[in-house]
Every structure is written in structure tokens, then in C-alpha cells.
């Protein structure tokens, strides 16, 4: 730097004047100061240097002498620091927490220390990554809201959480008994450091030798067959079957103890109840201690009395809403919340149960006031200083509820995919998917949670998202109470019973079918001003169906059609659904409603395009006054002011503004979110008179209208056109009628073409709503989230799902039945299978297998075309059912409908009119001999031959003979029916009947072991492998049965009955054990297939431990496998942020389409790579046995908006995106919003695996997407 030029002053004179100089600025101007001192300057370094001098200095320092730079100094390049060797540091480890402590035992009166007892400590070393307990310490503050994918969830309610007491008393030595080899193995040590040994009576009887693992304390002395327990008497008793040496020696009086010890009761404090019972039992003399032990062991193993069956558990408790709650204010003198109106009876009933902290299920019609229950729960949580979570099925409903609850309570927060407002509030509103993510991630918000409110629970029927509701209900901890709000459903008790059994708490079901505003349903057939009065009442407010109104509508439509045919020709179409006719229908309808003061009206149209067409066609309709126009204009200006200039000029914004000024509105998924909110707010203010909406509007908050109109009663559900379901119709029709304003609500169905059939209308309007059905399915995210937690199993999640509820609700009864059968089996005497009876077990097994094989073959015959053709009139068959056992019959008639029924003449012994159950026919012989098993052993009447005519199902035919009789089936049936009347009962049968009966009797006598039957392979041409192999196996079994030796023993009948009883009990026990096991789960095969997919892709190892890729997949919200594979294949790391966002749009876009040819080459290659990865995953799924084909898996990707997203991420205004794709603006916005959520989840996953570059790119991509109208703040949150 250049030296500063300073003014040289003369030395101070002797007078030493108090003066000083100050240089001002860099212009050379000086000022005198009256302060003595050296000259100063206002600049730190005097005059600034000139540019040439700086350049010369830089050249001299950095270019002329580069050695000055530290880069070229090599004297420190080889510098290093010697590490001190400390091998002992490798052995240092953090001290484990002390698992136990010593607790002093004091005298209860004096407090004197009598001794010390070791007690196990709880909550040692608990953390969010090792424990599911609520007693674990909270995680970091930054993760308290969302949790972390690496954290464990909290223990689900209803499942038994193991406590330290349970762990200390639970027997950890799992005994493995092989009854065939007679071995007993002890695998693990007990908690106190010793080895428990179980005594099994069956193993003792078989002289089993225990294989005991060596430990510090041996419990089996040399030469003994059983172990003993050396624990002191005051130790906690092990389970029954563990022998106590001190107890065994007491009766022998070997110790000579004092009287005080003898007076001590065996079952005193700290004693052992089981040991007391053992010691009190008298013991006889024994020649050795070993015999004494064996006798004692056999005594212990004797079966105990079964416990009394528990009373029937009632988890779903219906509440009577018809009786008034007169003492409501006496029971709740200071309610947590008060309304300006008097609550209804069902609302009071729900509030009473909420005060008792009960869980409730409220099912009521739309607009009945279910939100009152939710409001009281929120107020109750604020009073208790706890928290409430309100879940909704859609994001728009969450925003609306946030506005309503914030205005009511103030302390309300909102959590959606892209918005996070007041997360510390006592009431949080969110979608169900976010609550599921918080539960799996172990969010600390769950700790303070008192209520979870599920709104629109009937949304559980949604095939795509219904599984989320079940997952959340299963994963909620035990301290959380549940409030379910739903429309009326027929199986509310069943659903509540499932939740009650799931959570082991009673659910109070409060259901009401009463409407606060009754509805009247009409048919409208008009299409012009002349016919605008053609409105016909079909269903009145009392629920009565008016057929007169229906026929009047049919006649009016028929008269107009006949006039049309006379004018334009008879071959003209009866209905032309064009825009012109729709315009005429709506103009006449709205004129009629306007004249009757029945506006506002909601028109439900099941097509986005038709909504826009119908609203745009009413150009001449203006329903607002000048003051309303001014209010609408000001509201629009205020709401649209937050948009940028170009976004305010979007065609949809301009068009919607013009419609709204005339009192018209459109509401569907293709509308921009901010415009939908404007329409909703104006409609709630009464400024929108006519609203054309799709079905999603009925899912919103309470926005009732005076009238609801259905454009049609048919809709497309994604696969086909169908009529509206009763539940869908009721949900949308419930928007009619404003409480406190309208005496009745009006529902109108337009008849643009023909009038619908009366049966269809009756079913839609008065049918039962759809039941709540389980949509539970396995997802990879669910499997990985549960596999990473050792204490939770996917099988438990499947067991507790609503789909398994019908088969699992009787589990307790099955367990009791299994215990009873086990007791019966132990009391049964073993069958003697020695000597000539050695093959008795095989004989029984052969007979059972032969019967099952024949039944299988017969089922296949009855399912085949040739088998049914052979059962024609005159065919002789063998009948076997409850009334007849191997009786011959001849087919008289065959029904022609789908379910075949065969009218058959059958031989019988006595008339079937007898009421005695013994007279219904011969019973199966108790002991089957070879001739009974190999043949049919046809029924032969003992006395006079009788006959009957019965209708048989295909399963009643045991065999089809080769014989065909000539019979007049119709004549025989009529004669038998006539003789069943009391007047003709004694009349003789016709000759045709007698001839047929005599022919059947002759066949039975000629072939007592059964007539020749049709061969399924040769005669019926059944080439199925199972049938062919079954026939060969049946012939082999017949040979084995004929050669059995046990049947020649005189003891065969008695021993066979004993064996059969044991085998039947064992078979029933196997069935019950199967029902209680995981193997009976419906989704278990698919679970194994999906785990195999994860194992093949490297997400879990052979032991089921989740690996790094699996933990990354847990952090994904959707398409977890595809996103993880793309990340680990480095398919995204080399792309720019806007290119990554464009490619990922194919995973979230819902509108199918082609990416187009205008894409850059990088994006084209990226699309192909994504498809290739998806194809590879699909092939792995197919190889592992999943039903989804590769084409279906790849077909889930839609790349129609790749170019739109790419240009948006590059900064293109939204107004210019419309020309790139024909997709509605609302769907484009939804795609970009979901894409931003996916980018954030990928950012978190990249940080999890240590990919900072990819994480930064995903952060940049999310930032590029979040701008302008796409992410404009919701009007409900302002």
C-alpha cells in the first residue's frame, strides 16, 4: 500500500497553543481544532490509492515473486504428528447401565432392616432407537414433531407390552420336546442366572433323558432323571412343573426343624402357592429319592380342572339415542364448551361418554351435527392441557376445518404436505397419511395426545387409501382415545366391535338416522319454459315412495316423445344429450326453482368436462343483484391480489370471475385450488346461486344448499359406468336443506332421456348404504417399518386388520375349546395297536384318505360339463346326505338355471314324514370294515320298500352309475306331490312310480356293494391331473384296505372306536391351532412373496434385518422401491434439479399421456432409464410370485407432464404452460404440489445415506417448484 501523505507541521512554540489539525475527506481540505494533538484524518488510511498503483503492487507481489505464496512453500509439506500407541483404549467401552439394585427389606412395625433383595430396574438405557415404551426419554427438539424414520414407534394399544415384571417371571428356557425321540432340550438361562428345567409327565413316561446345557449351577444330579430347584422358599415360584427340593424333603422330616419353622404356612408371604399345594399333599413311602421325584413329577403333570368360560365380551356398546338426557347439566355442571344452541340427544350422549374418557363412534347423516362432538373433544383436551389430532381424508377439508376451529378455539395448528402452521398448538389438523407417518416415526406429539378424531370414516372403503385408516387405528397407543365420525353405515356395530377388540376397550356406538332437515325427492322431466312445471314428487319427507309421481313422470315424458315423433318422424332418437338440450333443461329448471325461492342449488355432475360445459352454456343467466355483484367483485380483487400479474390473467381465472359475478360457480379437481376456495367461500356466503360440482364437493365441510340436483344417476367409477350406490346418493343428497332456514330440503333428479326404472330409483334412494369394508393390503413401507422393530411383527398387523376380524373374533373361544380338547385327549385311553392290531392306525388313515379322495373326484365331476350332462333324466345315482346313506335314486327332472337342482326318486325305509330323528334314514356304521370303505354298501330297506322324491344339490350325489332308466319324471313328481296331500295320502302310486321303484330295488339287490359307476377319465373324459392321480391313489388305497390284518382281530371294533375318538380330537385340535396360528392369515402368502422381493433387491437380509436400502425406502411416501433403486443406481445424481423434478413427475402424475417428442435428449434417456428400473422391479415381483404383471407395474407411471414440469422448474410462467398440455390446470397444480413433497422426502433420504450432492439438488428442485400460483397460500389459512 502507498504511504499516506501528511502535512508537516512546525514544532510547537513555547507557548504550546491548544490547536490541532484534521484532514477532511480525500480532497486536501484541512480544519483547525481547539484540541491539541497530532494531525488526524477522517479516512483510516489517508488518500485512497490510485488504480495503477494497486495493479503494480499486485503484479509485484503475486506474479513477479510467486514463491511468496504459501502454495509454493514445501517446507511444511511432509510434516506429520506421531500417534501415541494406546492399545488399552481399544478395550475401553461405555459402562452398561446397572440392570438391578439392592432394595432393603424392613420390618413393617419397627423399620429394622431384615435383609436385602435384588430388584430389576426398569427404563434402563431406553431410547427412541431401542424401545417402544412411552417411558423412554424424548428425542431431539428438532424431531419432536415429525419424528425420525430411524426411531421406533410407540407400543400399539391393545397389544400386551412386556414389563420388567413380566420379563422376570416369564420362563425364558423354551422347552423343545420331541415326543417321537423322547428328548427334552433347554435352550436359555433364566433371568436370575440359573437354568430352569421343566418336568413333563409324558417325557418321564417315555424315559426321556434331558439334554441340559452346562451352566454355573447344575440342576440335574448324576443318575437323576429330573431336575430340582434349590431356590429358597421365599423366592418367587416358577411355573407349575418345577420341582422344589426343600418341599420334597419336608415330609421326610430329615431336617429336624424347630417348631417355629413348622408353624410357618407354606403359602405365606413370599412363599409359593404351588409349593404349598405340593407340600401339603401326603407322600407315601419310597425306596429311593429318585422314585419319589418321579411320583411327584407325575402328580404335578396331572390335568387340572379347566377354567370356567369367560363371559361374552361386548366391545361395541350401542347407545339409545331415543331417550332424552334430562340430567345432562347435572352430570356436567361446567361443560368444557358451550354452544349458542341446545345440543341434540345424540350429541349429549356422546359428550357424556367423552367426559368419561370413552371412545365413541358417531354415525349420522350429513349436516346432522357430528362436528359438535369433535369440538367438545378439542375443548376437553384444552381443559386437560393435552392435545387432539383431527384427521381428514383430503387436504382441502383440512384447510377448511383449520379455519373453522381456529375461529372457535384459536390454539389450532395445521400440518399438510406443504404447510406447517402452529405445530405446537393443542389441536393439530392433518391428513391421515401424515398421522401414519408420525406414528411410524415415533413422533413425541403422540405422548401428549388424548384424542384422535377420524372424520369421514366411511372413506375407509376407498380402495387406494383405505388401508391408511386401518394402519393408524392399529398403531395408536393405548392412552389415546378414539372418536369416529361417519355417515350412516349398516355395520357400525361390527366396525366398532373390531376396534374395541383391537384396543381392548369398549366403543360406544351412537347412531341416528334422523335428519335435522327432512328431504323431498323429485323427478324433473321439463326442457323448456312450457314444461318447467313438470316436477313430480317421488319420495316425501316421511320416507314414503310415491308410485303415482313416478308414473306421472313417465306419462309426461312419453307424451313429449310422441309429439316429437309426430313432428320430426318416428325414427328420431329419443334423447340427444347435446349442450343445446342441456341448456334448455337447466334454464327451465332454474327458472322454476327461482320462482319457488329454492336457490341456492348444487348440481352434481359426474364429469369435469360436463361441469364446465353446463356452466358456460348459461350465458344469458344472471342471478345476482348489483350489490351482490359489488361484493363479489371486491372479494375477488382481495383474493386475487396475492397472485402475480400474469397469473391473474389466466383464462380459467378470467372465466371463473365472469361466472361468479353472475352467481354461477364450478367446483371440481380441474379447477385451480385458490379458485375452488373462492367458490366455496362465496357459496357459503350465499353469493353463488348455482354451483356445478363433482362428487368431491360432498366430501367438504358443512356447506348446505336449498336444493340439490343430480344431472344423472349414473357415473364412471374408473372401470365402468354404473348407477349411484345408496351411500353415494345419500352423501350428496344430504347437502340439501339448511338447518334453521329451510323446513325441507329438495332433491331433484333430471330425466333428460327416459325415466329410470322404478326398481333402480327405489334401490338408490331407499337402499342400505354400503358397509364399511376392509381395504387392508400389504405395502412395502408397512413391511419395512415393522421389520425394523424387533418387537412388532407384520403378522400381528395382519391379524389385527379389519379383513381378518371375522375369523379372529372367536380366538378366545378357540383357545378355550383347544384347552378343553387337550384335557379330553389327556384323559382318553390309548388304543391297543399291538399284535394283530399293529396296522390299525394305518387302516384308519387309509379309510380317511380314501373318503377324501373320492369326495375330491366327485366334486370335480360335478363341476365339469360332462359330469353335469350325464345327470340327465333317468340316470341312476347313489345319494348320500343327511337323510339318505348310499341310497339308490333315479333323476326325474333337472333345473335349467345356473344352480343345478336334481329332482330325484329315492329308495327309503320308512316315510320321511316321521318327526323322529332316528327315522330319517340309516346312519353311518360305527366301525367300517373293508367292504364298507371299498364299496358303497347300498341301502336296502328292511321292511316294505318305500320311496320319496327330493330335490338334490350336486354335493348330494355320491356316485353316478352307468344305468339309465326310462321314466316319466314329470308324471312321477306330480303323483308324489298329489299323494302328499292328506286327502290322497292313502292312494296307491301310479304304475310308473312302482316300476321305477322295483327297478331300483332290483339294482340294489343285484349290486349290494354299489352299481357300476362312470369312470371319470374314460367315460367322462376328465383329463385333469388331480383326477387321474386321485383315481390311481384310490385304487391303491382299496388294495391296502383289503389287505389289512387288524379287521380280523376280535378286539378290532373297540380299539377302532378308541383310535377314532383320539384322531378326531387331534384333528379338531389341529384345526383350532391352525385358526389361531399365523398360517391361517389370508395375506400370509403375499407377505412372504413381498419379503422375498425385498430380500432379492437387498432391502433385508436372510434373517429379516432391514438394511440401509430398506431404511431409505421407509423414508419414502410412495413408490418406495422405485425411488430407492433410482437413488442407489445413481440415476438422479448426474441430472440437474429441474431434470430430476421432470422425471419424478411420472411417479405422481395421475393423468395418462405421452411425454412427447419435444423433450431434450437427457430427459428422454431419463424416462427410458426410469422405465427400465421399474421393469426390473416388476420382473422381480413376478419371479417372487406376486400377481401384478410387469406391464401393470410399469403402467402405473405416467410421463404426460414431464415437459410441463420441466419448463415450470426452469421458470416459465403458469400462463404459458397451458399450451404445452391439455391437462386441466387443477391437475397440473396437484401434480407439482405432490412432486415437491416427493423431492423433500428424497432430500431426507439422501441425507440419510450421506449423499449431500443429491440432497442439495433435491432441495433446489423443491425450491424451483414452490412459486407463484401453484403454491399460493390457502385462503383458509390467512
Strand order of the largest sheet: 9-17-10-16-15-11-14-12-13
Structural class, from helix and strand content? alpha/beta
Question: What is the tally of beta strands?
Answer: 31
Mean pLDDT: 79
Give the helix level as a range of percent: 25-40%
Taken from the alpha-carbon principal axes, the silhouette is globular
Number of helices: 44
Strand portion: 5-15%
Which spans of ≥5 residues are poorly predicted at pLDDT below 50? Answer: 170-216, 233-310, 566-576, 912-925
Distance between the termini: 58 Å
Instruction: Describe the main β-sheet briefly.
Output: 9 strands, mixed
What gyration radius follows from the Cα positions, in whole Å? 43 Å
**Quaternary status of these chains?**
single chain
Molecular structure report:
- By secondary structure, the chain is α/β, with parallel strands linked by helices.
- It is 39% helix and 12% strand.
- It is built from 44 helices and 31 strands.
- Strand 27 (875-880) and strand 28 form a beta hairpin.
- The chain is globular.
Produce the secondary structure layout.
Blueprint: E1 20-24, E2 29-33, E3 40-41, H1 51-64, E4 100-106, E5 113-120, H2 164-169, E6 175-178, E7 183-186, H3 201-205, E8 209-211, H4 245-249, H5 259-263, H6 273-280, H7 289-300, E9 316-318, H8 328-331, H9 345-355, E10 359-363, H10 371-384, E11 387-392, H11 395-409, E12 412-415, E13 420-421, E14 427-431, H12 432-440, E15 449-454, H13 466-475, E16 481-486, H14 492-503, E17 507-511, E18 519-524, E19 535-539, H15 547-568, H16 579-595, E20 601-604, H17 608-617, H18 626-640, H19 645-648, H20 651-661, E21 664-667, H21 673-684, E22 690-693, E23 707-710, E24 714-716, E25 721-723, H22 726-733, E26 745-750, H23 758-766, H24 780-787, H25 794-799, H26 805-808, H27 811-827, H28 840-863, H29 865-870, E27 875-880, E28 885-894, E29 902-908, H30 930-934, E30 946-952, E31 957-964, H31 969-979, H32 991-1006, H33 1025-1042, H34 1052-1076, H35 1084-1097, H36 1108-1114, H37 1120-1128, H38 1137-1148, H39 1161-1183, H40 1190-1195, H41 1202-1209, H42 1214-1217, H43 1225-1248, H44 1252-1265
Parallel strand pairs: 1-3, 7-8, 9-17, 10-16, 10-17, 11-14, 11-15, 12-14, 15-16, 18-26, 20-22, 20-23, 21-22, 23-26
Antiparallel strand pairs: 1-2, 4-5, 6-7, 12-13, 18-19, 24-25, 27-28, 27-31, 28-29, 29-30
Subcellular location: Cytoplasm
Region (Disordered): 254-277
Main location: cytoplasm
